[in-house]
Batch of 2 targets.
Target 1
Amino acid sequence: MRALVFDSFGGPLEVREVPAPEPPPGGVVVRVAASGVCRSDWHGWQGHDPDVVLPHVPGHELAGVVAKVGPAVRGFAVGDRVTVPFCCGCGTCEPCRHGHTQICDRDFQPGFTAWGSFAELVALPRADLNLVRLPDGLGFVEAASLGCRFMTAFAAVTEHGRVGAGDWVAIHGCGGVGLSALMIAHARGASVVAVDVDDETLALARALGAAHTINARDPVEEIVELTAGGAHVSLDALGSAATCANSLRCLRKRGRHVQVGLMLEADRTAPLPIDRVIAYELSLHGVHGMAVGHYDALLRLVTSGAVDPARLIGRTIGLDDAGAELASMGEFAQRGVTVIEL
Ligand SMILES: [Zn+2]
Ligand SMILES: [Zn+2]
């Protein structure tokens, strides 16, 4: 099969012939139809992820058709249109037994713990637990665009934020995950205040349903004023010490902060206004993808037309252009999700 391979961290990204995978006993091989390009793939290529072993094929936001089935698989057959969460569960550890496959103790992540989906074929384990059947009306490109940022935003808004109609929701950082969260919170009847430092991004946020937008590095006072006391739920969708603290400080009493953006390097141990957490009885939630069991609810929201993830797709490219696209992910200010179509 053809795949995008790298042999050294930060080294050349080359499309070449490699051996086709075989399905594990309980798993499948999927013929990849579409695969989103994500900044996490860039981190893997750069050597920031200890799970990646060389040589490596990246790619974790995939949709396609089951091409081969292991002998122990019961629920899926060749020809099924499927996707998977980027974080697949083992099915037997304690978090998996409670349904929390996204924080599995022995998680499988295509494109990180094994070869991924920047390839014609990808092997996936424990298919009966991890595969998700796609509704007929949902295209592969749209389905691939749900598998990471959108799915994480869905978990942040519904599971952790428990956002309901009439809530004020503040979103700090309007990249792919922030705009996804905006659409989902808006669809649930919440009023969203979107914060970013780029006017073009904020215009898109308004078009996607934001009630208010703020272009500022310190938006706390303005949010508290707009919402008559603070947001009920606030998301740090960027991931930095400053946006995390802003997100906590803009909450009203008993509000919920959800940390969506990854905290890297010096921000890993960012100081937090814990005195405010106590005085206001705030709660803090981390989010690491979404349990596979919540995929049905996510797909219903999408197929109902209440949200349209396709509005966040910037462009589609071929596998031959994937290397250049991946290399460019090091720069911020990406506009729209890029999806590889195979
Ligand atoms: Zn991703
Ligand atoms: Zn597990």
Target 2
Amino acid sequence: MYVDSHCHLSFPELHADVARIRAAMRAARVDRALCICTTLEEFETVHALATTYDNFWATVGVHPDNEGVAEPTVDDLVERASRERVVAVGETGLDYYRLGTRSVADMSWQRERFRVHIRAALAASKPLVVHTRSAGEDTLAILREEQGGRVGGVFHCFTETREVAKAALDLGFYISFSGILSFRNAEDLRAVARAVPLERCLIETDSPYLAPVPFRGKVNYPSYVPWVAQALAQAKGVTPEEVARVTSLNFERLFALPAWVPTTEEGRNAR
Ligand SMILES: [Zn+2]
Ligand SMILES: [Zn+2]
């Protein structure tokens, strides 16, 4: 009944453990997950998860924090975005959180990479999975300039302000909340969550990072997404079941997926 809209099962610390992770998902009633790509080099591993298991889907993109990796062209992304079970372009966006000795002006390569992803998403008619950290204004400005609203998508692991959330919603994007929503010091983010209509919310783990309370600081898994649902339910004053139901429908709508018919693992293998 729950969907993890953003996880990194291709990362070595999770990939070696997929069978156990899937068993934990079943026990936690986490039906589906979207496996997120962060480099072209890892795409085939991400894609194989989605073609092997009928409740996993994949994206294609190069994360803004990744340097020293293959730089994607529009064609690289469009070709992969058009493969079966690839439902979005990303994760892509801007991250000014770890500038180090650099200035925002030095990050033009990141902005150019983001533009390439938006052009690919438009060419492939697939929504965008947007990562933005300490860069809300530039992220929104580039999305507007490149007409990213024509395909829409999701601002994932949202940690920006209510104003950025409103502007993203106005552009037609969804807002995805992670385990950060359950952290004791995240009252500002809970205020943002209260202001975003549930019909425009997704939930995610961003595993292996950002485990929700009570697992904070440990390795995160898709099976922990009910704890994110609970944090969102508490912030909004609704039941976790309602959060699960509506965010699952939102996931289907955003990524153009058919209504999910749960099957047993035996049935799944037999398909
Ligand atoms: Zn991210
Ligand atoms: Zn991510």
